[in-house]
Design a protein that fits this description.
The chain is mainly alpha-helical and 457 residues long. Helices cover 66% and strands 1% of the residues.
Length: 457
């Protein structure tokens, strides 16, 4: 089934299909449940019997199936599709791929090992299997993604198809939020995150999905890789993703998408040997300027609809700071994340060697007790100690390697953008979603210039 989606000759069909899927998911979860298991089971069935050539199809399945995590949550498919689908499915599919022999990233095993000591420590005396799973599977999935994806070869066309499969469920999320959100004329905007414009769901997650979707559409459009089959439709989709993402008033996801776009604009022109960038510099500059103007006008229009509150939100204003009741500090601007970060560092100082134990920081922080960590790096330090620090160093070293190798790969800018977006996501959503492991993994691929695809199942 997954190969049927990839090889469909009319690209617009799958965009429309997923828009309809998102709309229907606002009415009943059963259409999504049936479609999800139809794709997953039929695609995996063909891979189980294969002994060779299954890496790319497995990447397709991992990317597409786990990307339904947010839509499944929004449409209420649990328990038929688990609420934390991305975590569990990634663990299973990455494990399956590793057992199939795709395991070149040996440093990932060390990363897994570094996470284990804190499992046996419980300073807060709040340890439970649920708590450990909630906090540990994210970084374990990142480590397994390193094992599975590192240095695996993939043709450029297959990478493009992977990006589309990552995008389709996000388009369904976009359709869901538009249907569930109130009319713009009736919407009420404050200086807080807007759950109504996020379709009644978590603004941080929806914003992250829409920001990633906007980035993927931008890359496909810039490189003239077919998405809808019409470049004007592609840019319209890009604008709608940015516009609806801005209206959630959740900044992290949109800033993450912007980081990816900036990286592409800064580095792709320098390293891409395609005629588009070497022989047509004027046309390239016009394209870049056009995109920037589109983004500016989209922001201005969204700001006008919100009565100027959107610009204030991105300036770090809150109801308290705007009314003069609260000082606008970095901690206020980051929605208390700086205080959580600071408290985590204090915990690390108190338990420097092996940390306070998996999930313990939530109960031990002095000023932010009860709050979940939004910054994965500080959680790793406070709960895992020195092994957590080594885990961070390894993850950062992988990023440095990608940066240094970008000029050797015609798609090096794209891989760097994926890595930095994954890294940024860990600073506002920790590693609790599928996005960081997937993007970290994809950034470690070795993209080949050949566009020859493997036979699919």
């Amino acid at each position: 089934m997954i190969w049927f989606i990839v090889n469909r000759r009319t690209p617009l069909f799958w965009l429309v299909f997923h828009i309809i899927l998102g709309i229907l998911s606002t009415v009943t979860p059963w259409i999504l449940i049936i479609w999800f298991y139809l794709v997953l089971l039929t695609s995996l069935g063909s891979l189980i019997t294969r002994t060779e050539g299954s890496f790319v199809p497995l990447v397709f399945i991992i990317t597409y199936a786990t990307s339904f995590e947010l839509l499944a949550r929004m449409s209420g498919t649990s328990p038929y599709i688990p609420y934390e689908l991305g975590k569990y499915l990634l663990l299973l599919l990455l494990g399956f791929g590793i057992l199939k022999g795709f395991r070149r990233g040996y440093i990932g095993w060390l990363m897994v090992g570094l996470l284990l000591p804190a499992v046996f420590i419980d300073v807060a005396e709040e340890s439970s299997l649920k708590n450990i799973v909630f906090n540990l599977i994210g970084p374990v999935n990142v480590a397994l993604a390193v094992v599975f994806f590192t240095k695996q070869e993939i043709a450029k066309d297959d990478l493009v198809d992977t990006m589309k499969l990552l995008l389709y469920p996000l388009v369904a999320v976009l359709a869901f939020t538009i249907i569930k959100a109130p009319d713009l004329e009736e919407a009420e905007f404050t200086l807080n995150a807007n759950f109504e414009m996020a379709g009644g769901f978590g603004t941080n997650q929806v914003s992250t999905a829409l920001g990633l979707g906007a980035f993927l559409v931008f890359v496909l459009w810039l490189n003239k890789w077919d998405l809808s089959g019409n470049r004007w439709l592609d840019i319209a989709l890009f604008v709608i993703l940015v516009f609806r993402g801005l209206l959630t008033f959740s900044r992290g996801g949109m800033i993450g998408g912007a980081i990816g776009i900036i990286v592409i604009l800064l580095f792709q022109n320098r390293i891409n040997v395609d005629e588009l960038y070497i022989r047509r510099p004027v046309k390239t500059m016009l394209m870049v300027m056009s995109i920037l103007l589109v983004l500016v006008f989209t922001f201005i229009y969204a700001d006008k609809i919100t009565g100027g509150k959107l610009a204030l939100r991105y300036q770090g204003e809150t109801p308290g700071t705007f009314a003069g009741r609260k000082e606008k500090t970095l901690n206020v601007i980051t929605s208390n994340r700086i205080q959580i970060f600071s408290d985590d560092l204090k915990l690390w100082k108190e338990y420097p060697v092996f940390g306070s134990g998996v999930g313990a920081s939530r109960y031990l922080r002095s000023k932010t007790s009860g709050f979940l960590s939004h910054i994965e790096f500080s959680r790793l330090l406070s709960e895992h100690g020195i092994p957590g620090l080594l885990y961070i160093v390894i993850l950062l070293k992988l990023g440095i390697n990608i940066f240094r190798a970008r000029s050797l790969n015609r798609n090096g800018a794209l891989l760097l953008a994926l890595y930095l977006m994954a890294l940024f996501t860990t600073f506002h959503s920790a590693m609790r979603t599928y996005i960081s492991p997937i993007l970290f993994g994809l950034s470690l691929l070795s993209v080949q210039n050949s566009d020859i695809k493997e036979d699919g199942g």
